[in-house]
């Protein structure tokens, strides 16, 4: 009897748990529970949905996403209420109160988020066709809307105004607030900044004046806006047009976790987003990528790569944003300090000062006098006035480093010359940070390509290991006649220049932008032996 009753109700249980009834508005005193997969608000055309989304183990955020594709792993999130305060998977809910307030409670207790609204008349919450979640009263007044508090994404028709900002997420799979912001600055210019230990702006190019970057500081309305055809305009005169301008496609403007801002578009219901515009074409110019004491270089087809500076080692192999730490402590004794030149390398910000028309010697002396000086940037600036004179920038920290053949300037690192040279390693563990040219959805991984890449990386590290051993051997057998790594100011040019150049070349090829440009094992041995023979003959 009992069994037959169960059998009778089984289809009912089955269907009730799998059919999805769409909710188009919340009114009265009502709520959406984290425990019910069906508790999702849907826009009238079905394009957008709002509900609880899993962001980690038993951690949920109330979010708005594109309803298609349905699978959780592929969902395109466009807004989040409590990105930095995820709630428990049991008893958490979003509730509309009779008072007119909307709150999110964690496990039935703590309020982690609220709209802070009150209303004498009745209110209702609904999702507009443009993706805007709106709290409205019965007179039609808007009490609150999600468009006023964007997270990392701007939808067409959504305004970015003076008190708003887009904040990137922490990483690919972590939706918490990250380090990058798009906002209107005090001078009315729309900018991208990196909020690391020190706040630095990297877009528009900080070396240009606003007017040189075609930005206007005069219009104080501070409004930016993307239209549905793919045209973006900002009150500081910055505009762009998407590559597929005019096509009726879905679009999102997103500040990605890597600090680049990209416009994505896709055909309706197709799940692949393609990049139709991006702010930074040179990804290493985005600040904060590789953390302190490391250099970012761009490897075509791979993406950005981080390398530790000579004398430094990586802090955490899984997180390059933490950068590298010094393998030994620098003393402040003048006669024990020298400089190592790295060409076409720039470190942005953290200047002790700005010293125009300083000769190399003056700049070097300045850095030696300052204990905290980690090195100095020495370059000629085209646009500066007066032009064609050298500019000296002693650095208190080595951050936002990047290597580019296009960069006309060198960095001189302060190094200790009394320590055995073997201690100065060059950590070339090249981790590809991320792809620039990716579509938003995950690529199907190509197994054979993956194998080739892994194989190449293994061969590469073995190669580098051998280079290092040979290098150490070479240096050991020619200790301090070959102070190649370190230019001691006291030597005053009384060193073997040719030999130094060769070793520099070998060292710097390790951080070469292009993998193919790096020497093979046999080439290195040849270079070193050749050099040795030459000097023996002299
Ligand atoms: C996301 O990153 C933040 C900051 O590092 C961390 O506190 C949080 O636990 C991470 N969340 C997940 C789900 O990994
Ligand atoms: C994402 O969508 C693609 C294509 O529909 C599918 O093959 C893939 O399994 C999905 N990924 C996840 C994580 O659901
Ligand atoms: C900004 O654009 C407007 C209209 O196109 C133009 O009149 C104005 O001169 C521009 N301002 C600057 C500073 O370029
Ligand atoms: C300022 O920018 C707004 C928005 O782009 C525009 O409508 C307005 O005409 C601009 N004002 C001036 C004086 O250019
Ligand atoms: C450098 O100095 C700090 C503090 O003085 C010390 O904690 C650290 O161990 C030193 N590092 C090395 C490599 O000697
Ligand atoms: C540097 O100078 C100090 C005293 O001025 C001296 O004690 C030390 O030995 C010198 N070091 C070297 C490497 O010459
Ligand atoms: C730069 O300094 C030199 C002397 O060191 C001086 O002759 C020259 O006029 C200076 N140039 C500028 C542009 O200040
Ligand atoms: C990015 O991808 C597009 C199309 O897939 C390709 O034409 C373009 O060359 C790529 N750009 C880079 C920098 O790899």
TrEMBL record:
<keyword id="KW-1133">Transmembrane helix</keyword>
<protein>
    <recommendedName>
        <fullName>Bulb-type lectin domain-containing protein</fullName>
    </recommendedName>
</protein>
<feature type="domain" description="Bulb-type lectin">
    <location>
        <begin position="26"/>
        <end position="148"/>
    </location>
</feature>
<dbReference type="Pfam" id="PF00954">
    <property type="entry name" value="S_locus_glycop"/>
</dbReference>
<dbReference type="InterPro" id="IPR000858">
    <property type="entry name" value="S_locus_glycoprot_dom"/>
</dbReference>
<keyword id="KW-0732">Signal</keyword>
<keyword id="KW-1015">Disulfide bond</keyword>
<keyword id="KW-0812">Transmembrane</keyword>
<dbReference type="Pfam" id="PF01453">
    <property type="entry name" value="B_lectin"/>
</dbReference>
<keyword id="KW-0325">Glycoprotein</keyword>
<feature type="signal peptide">
    <location>
        <begin position="1"/>
        <end position="21"/>
    </location>
</feature>
<dbReference type="InterPro" id="IPR036426">
    <property type="entry name" value="Bulb-type_lectin_dom_sf"/>
</dbReference>
<dbReference type="InterPro" id="IPR011009">
    <property type="entry name" value="Kinase-like_dom_sf"/>
</dbReference>
<feature type="transmembrane region" description="Helical">
    <location>
        <begin position="451"/>
        <end position="475"/>
    </location>
</feature>
<dbReference type="GO" id="GO:0016020">
    <property type="term" value="C:membrane"/>
</dbReference>
<dbReference type="GO" id="GO:0048544">
    <property type="term" value="P:recognition of pollen"/>
</dbReference>
<dbReference type="InterPro" id="IPR001480">
    <property type="entry name" value="Bulb-type_lectin_dom"/>
</dbReference>
<keyword id="KW-0472">Membrane</keyword>
């Amino acid at each position: 009897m009992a069994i037959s009753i169960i059998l009778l109700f089984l289809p009912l249980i089955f269907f009730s748990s799998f059919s999805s009834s769409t909710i188009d508005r919340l009114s009265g005193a009502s709520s959406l529970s984290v425990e019910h997969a069906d508790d999702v608000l849907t826009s009238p055309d079905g394009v957008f949905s709002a509900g609880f989304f899993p962001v980690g183990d038993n951690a949920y955020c109330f979010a708005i996403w594109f309803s298609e594709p349905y699978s959780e792993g592929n969902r395109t999130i466009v807004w989040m209420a409590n990105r930095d305060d995820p709630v428990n998977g049991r008893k958490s809910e979003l509730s509309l109160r009779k008072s007119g307030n909307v709150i999110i409670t964690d496990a039935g207790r703590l309020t982690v988020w609220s709209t802070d609204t009150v209303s004498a008349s009745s209110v209702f919450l609904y999702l507009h066709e443009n993706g805007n979640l709106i709290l409205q009263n019965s007179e039609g007044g808007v009490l609150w809307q999600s468009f006023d508090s964007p997270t990392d994404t701007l939808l067409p028709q959504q305004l970015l105004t003076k008190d708003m900002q887009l904040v990137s997420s922490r990483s690919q799979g972590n939706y918490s607030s990250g380090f990058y912001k798009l906002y209107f600055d005090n001078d009315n210019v729309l900018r991208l900044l990196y909020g690391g230990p020190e706040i630095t702006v990297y877009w528009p190019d900080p070396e240009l004046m606003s007017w040189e970057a075609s930005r206007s500081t005069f219009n104080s309305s501070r409004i930016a806006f993307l239209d549905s055809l793919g045209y973006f305009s900002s009150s500081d005169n910055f505009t762009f047009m998407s590559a597929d301008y005019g096509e009726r496609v879905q679009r999102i403007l997103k500040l990605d976790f890597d600090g680049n801002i990209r416009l994505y578009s896709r055909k309706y219901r197709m799940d692949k987003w393609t990049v139709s515009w991006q702010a930074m074409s040179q990804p290493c110019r985005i600040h904060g990528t590789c953390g302190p004491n490391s250099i970012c270089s761009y490897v075509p087809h791979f993406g950005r790569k981080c390398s530790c500076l000579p004398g430094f080692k990586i802090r955490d192999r899984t997180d390059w944003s933490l950068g590298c730490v010094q393998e030994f402590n620098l003393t402040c004794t003048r006669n024990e300090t020298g400089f190592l030149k790295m060409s076409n390398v720039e470190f942005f910000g953290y200047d002790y000062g700005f010293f125009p028309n300083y000769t190399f010697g003056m700049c070097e002396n300045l850095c030696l006098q300052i204990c905290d000086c980690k090195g100095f940037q020495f370059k000629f600036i085209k646009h500066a006035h007066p032009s064609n004179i050298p500019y000296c920038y002693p650095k208190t920290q080595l951050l936002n480093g990047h290597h580019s053949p296009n960069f006309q300037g060198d960095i001189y690192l302060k190094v200790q010359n009394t320590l055995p040279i073997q201690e100065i390693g060059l950590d070339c563990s090249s981790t590809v940070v991320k792809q620039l040219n990716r579509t938003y959805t995950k690529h199907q991984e190509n197994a054979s390509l993956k194998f080739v890449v892994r194989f190449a990386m293994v061969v590469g590290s073995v190669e580098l290991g051998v280079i290092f051993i040979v290098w150490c051997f070479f240096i050991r057998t020619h200790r301090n006649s070959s102070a190649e790594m370190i230019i001691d100011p006291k030597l005053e040019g009384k060193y073997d220049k040719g030999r130094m150049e060769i070793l520099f070349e070998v060292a710097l090829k390790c951080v070469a932008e292009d993998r193919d440009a790096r020497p093979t094992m046999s080439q290195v041995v040849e270079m070193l032996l050749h050099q040795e023979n030459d000097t023996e003959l002299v």
